Amino acid sequence: MSHLPSEPEFEQAYKELALTLENSSLFTKKPEYRTALKVASIPERVIQFRVVWEDDAGNLQVNRGYRVQFNSALGPYKGGLRFHPSVNLSILKFLGFEQIFKNALTGLMMGGGKGGADFDPKGKSDAEIRRFCDAFMRELCKHIGADTDVPAGDIGVSGREIGFLFGTYRKQRNKFEGVLTGKGLDWGGSLIRPEATGYGLVYYVGHMLEYAGAGGWAGKRVAISGSGNVAQYAALKCIELGATVVSLSDSKGSIVAVGDGHVTAEDVEAIANLKVKRQSLSTYAIRDGLKYIEGVRPWMHVGKVDIALPCATQNEVSKEEAEALVAGGTKFIAEGSNMGCTLEAIEVFEGNRREKKGDAIWYAPGKAANCGGVAVSGLEMAQNSQRLAWTKEEVDDKLKDIMKNAFQRGLDTAKEYVETAEGELPSLVAGSNIAGFVKVAQAMHEQGDWWTKE
């Protein structure tokens, strides 16, 4: 790739997957899959376009819009839209690449893609956001559809933005179809969709706890980063199941429990209201038992915790923070965010798993642990296809089954392809990577996307 511009986030995601494949017995048993990796690492299509819109003062503004349609071997491209000033092609390629294998682990018929724009919704009026969404979708609608590419929300794209985007698609294409997920409940949305990533993360970790003989959630101390959708619902589900949540964070700083203090469901609700207004955690009225620390992530400030759930953004756990979590006695870490841990942090966790055996920290990658969000997006697509709406209980039961199966696939695949010493917990990162990759690679082979010399 030396002739191409550097794409650090994508290169990291590719390296993380490729290293686990190389360090397993997969290529020894099935050397032809090296060819599959070469093909799968290049998107089927990358769409880039300009988005011209008008602010409230009547001034012309312009942003870059993108859609990376990475792989459709298992179904229509599926993955979120991100509106954030940091958005670039490298970040969207990394997210789309991860999405391929995450979607495969759900067991649903979904390919992988990602998109968005370097537009910042913060500080914008509803009218400005509506005009931007309209301009963005007038171009994107030429490239998506219910059987082609079904975007969802991501950072900066909530129910409000999905509504604006869907309205423009409907008017531009003269179609009412399940082209976006995360829609309003009265016009094709699914119950449990807002909660799905956070709830699914907690369900997944529940299976880790059970397999490792650590009991259930009751009494566990849990550090969570982020304060958006994923972090909020993960925190609420942890609290519901009897755990003690000791942190939340945003890009400006962290709220951390002091002494016997903890984050309550009322705290989460109040913080959710702040985030709807796009306000910082620094504006939250801190009560006794909590403190706000400016400019830090929570990991080195939470003391001893049993479980860590990164739920903010990529690379939010560094090598030093990983070492601090291990030193503090953390036994489980699972990513609610995509690629939440750096490669160096993952090496710390995996090294500890091999060294300490059953007494180690056990790490679960985002492509497995946070696949609940896209899973319920897939369930929303199924409901749209049938023109039906399932109950909350039906969707939640299906989500629980999907998370159980994603955990089991990763576990079983690790046992098959990764050498494990006696008493050592299987590598969920290797198992999940291999399971997702093999499923996609096999579908690509059967459809003629790659082949080897007879």
TrEMBL record:
Domain Glutamate/phenylalanine/leucine/valine/L-tryptophan dehydrogenase C-terminal: 190-448
Keyword entries, A-Z: Acetylation, NAD, NADP, Nucleotide-binding, Oxidoreductase
UniProt name for this protein: Glutamate dehydrogenase
Subunit structure: Homohexamer.
Family listed: Belongs to the Glu/Leu/Phe/Val dehydrogenases family.
SUPFAM superfamilies cross-referenced by the UniProt entry: Aminoacid dehydrogenase-like, N-terminal domain, NAD(P)-binding Rossmann-fold domains
BP GO annotations: glutamate biosynthetic process
Listed PANTHER family: NADP-SPECIFIC GLUTAMATE DEHYDROGENASE 1-RELATED (PTHR43571:SF1)
Active site: 114 (proton donor)
GO CC, alphabetical: cytosol
InterPro entries the UniProt entry points to: Aminoacid_DH-like_N_sf (IPR046346), Glu/Leu/Phe/Val/Trp_DH (IPR006095), Glu/Leu/Phe/Val/Trp_DH_C (IPR006096), Glu/Leu/Phe/Val/Trp_DH_dimer (IPR006097), Glu/Leu/Phe/Val_DH_AS (IPR033524), Glu_DH (IPR014362), Glu_Leu_Phe_Val_DH (IPR050724), NAD(P)-bd_dom_sf (IPR036291)
